[in-house]
Specification:
The protein is an all-beta fold. The protein has a domain at 79-177. A hairpin with a 5-residue loop joins strand 25 (269-273) and strand 26. The protein is elongated.
């Protein structure tokens, strides 16, 4: 006969193969028609009022063996077909256990437990999380999740976009908002205390709600926010120090160790004491009082920097920077920068910059800049600029500029400019300008201008101008000498005492004839 399930021995369901041979009844598959109990091996399915056998109604599992491990129910999920199995994808449900109730016309889901893949699966990885959902009378939504990392998240708003409670694997409890914690009981002003055994209770602290009493001592938080401590009360900080507050005007705050080091206030002001002998005090009138010989040193104990960002980066040994941003970046060894932005960036070894903006950028080794914006930008090696805006921009090596705006722009190497606006612009190398506005503009190579406004405009190279007229005297001819004033005398013969003069163009010598 064909394959059939047919009646067999009493209480069993036998299986007949296609050959018609009556096999032995399937072991362990029985049905008790009287008690309406279906038994499949270790599984019993009974009616709700059944009380025999396992002693439990519904579906039960029984196993009896010596192993500690048990496997009562397994859910296996994959994609594909039974003959061509494929591993599940991210977000696939591996199990879905649903609890439903009859709503009068059909079953209605009241809660569920789902095992959901969370991540990429492989032959060695099946990242999974458990999601618990409930119906709150209006909607059926996710409520609790155990993540693949073992973190418990609880929330009342799906899909867990805002976590109210998280229990981390390390035992930490994280609350999403303070309003999510509420401990009932107690009254306004009471404190939650412990008896030392883990039991909490509401307690009324002695005194008013803003007053802490310990015997005869009171600590009071006033309505204005002020904290009042009893005389001599303190906060202990261990053996190394003590923060002490009292009501004595002469000593209201004391934060010192047993050696006297620390911070305290007294009638002088706010004092920081490094040891028992030396103190820095901020006085009540805003001054900072330092002990005799006190300095601010770098970690090597050699350089000195006083002022915001002074000597901030790469300050050289024994360098000194005083003032806002003075010597702020790469100040050379033994260099001195005094004044706001003085020697600010790349001040050379042994260079000196005194004045706001003096030697500010790329001041050369051993250069000297004294005065506001003196030698401000690219002052050459061993150059000297003294005066407001003297040698301000691109002063050559060994050049000298003394006076307001002297050698102000592009002064050549070894050039000398002394006087207000002397050699002011484009004074060439080896040129000399002495006097107000002498050699003022474009003085040539090795030219010499002496006197007020001597050679003020485009003085020729290798020329000499000596001016005592009080007005401009130019010389635009190379290798020439211009002198004014020279006294003129009328008559055909030399005045008494005068001699004829001659000039040697080869040697440059002047002579007179002793006739």
């Amino acid at each position: 006969m064909p394959n059939t399930i047919n009646s067999g021995n009493t209480g069993n369901i036998p299986y007949y193969a296609a050959t018609g041979t009556d096999l032995s009844p399937s072991p362990g598959i029985t049905y008790d028609a009287v008690n309406r109990v279906l038994n499949i091996g270790a599984i019993n399915v009974t009616r709700s009022s059944f009380s025999g056998g396992f002693g439990y109604a519904g579906m039960s599992y029984q196993q009896f063996h010596t192993s500690a491990a048990i496997s009562s129910m397994n859910f296996v999920r994959g994609r594909g077909t039974s003959s061509s199995k494929v591993k599940p994808n991210n977000a696939d449900q591996l199990a879905n256990i649903v609890a439903a109730g009859w709503n009068g016309t059909a079953p209605m889901v009241g809660s569920y437990i789902r095992a959901v893949v969370n991540g990429t699966t492989s032959a060695t990885s099946m990242p999974t999380e458990w999601v618990f959902g409930t119906h709150d009378g209006t909607t059926l939504e996710d409520r609790v999740k155990i993540t693949k990392d073992g973190v418990l998240q609880a929330n009342t708003i799906a899909p867990l976009s805002t976590t109210d409670l998280t229990l981390n694997a390390i035992g930490q409890i994280v609350l999403g908002a303070a309003s999510k914690v509420k401990i009932t009981g107690g009254s306004a002003g009471q404190s939650l205390t412990t008896d030392g055994n883990g039991n909490l209770s509401w307690t009324t602290v002695g005194g008013s709600s803003n007053q802490l009493v310990n015997g005869e001592y009171e600590v009071v938080l006033g309505s204005d926010g002020a904290l009042t401590l009893p005389s001599g009360a303190g906060f202990g900080l261990g053996e190394s120090g003590q923060l002490k507050v009292n009501d004595q005007a002469s000593q209201s705050l004391d934060f010192r160790d047993s050696a006297g080091r620390g911070f305290y206030t007294n009638s002088d002001g706010y004092t920081l004491r490094s040891n028992g002998n030396y103190s820095w005090t901020f006085t009540f009138d805003g001054h900072l009082a330092l002990p005799n010989g006190a300095v601010i040193r770098d970690t090597a104990g050699l350089a000195v920097a006083i002022g915001a960002s002074a000597g901030n980066t790469s300050q050289g040994t024994q360098a000194i920077a005083i003032g806002l941003n003075a010597g702020a970046n790469t100040q050379g060894e033994n260099a001195v920068a005094v004044g706001g932005n003085a020697g600010n960036d790349t001040q050379g070894i042994a260079a000196v910059a005194v004045g706001v903006g003096a030697g500010q950028t790329s001041q050369g080794t051993a250069a000297v800049a004294i005065g506001g914006n003196a030698g401000t930008t690219t002052q050459g090696i061993a150059a000297v600029a003294v005066g407001q805006n003297a040698g301000t921009t691109t002063q050559g090596g060994a050049a000298v500029a003394v006076g307001v705006y002297a050698g102000n722009t592009s002064q050549g190497e070894n050039a000398v400019a002394v006087g207000v606006y002397a050699g002011n612009t484009s004074q060439d190398e080896n040129a000399v300008a002495i006097g107000g506005e002498a050699g003022k503009t474009t003085q040539g190579v090795s030219a010499i201008a002496i006197g007020y406004r001597a050679g003020p405009t485009s003085q020729a190279a290798n020329s000499i101008v000596i001016n005592a007229t009080g007005v401009a005297l130019d010389n635009t001819t190379e290798s020439s000498l211009v002198v004014k004033p020279v006294r003129g005398v009328a008559g055909a013969s030399l005045p008494a005492g005068f001699k004829p003069v001659a000039y040697n163009p080869t040697t440059g010598e002047f002579i007179y004839y002793d006739l």
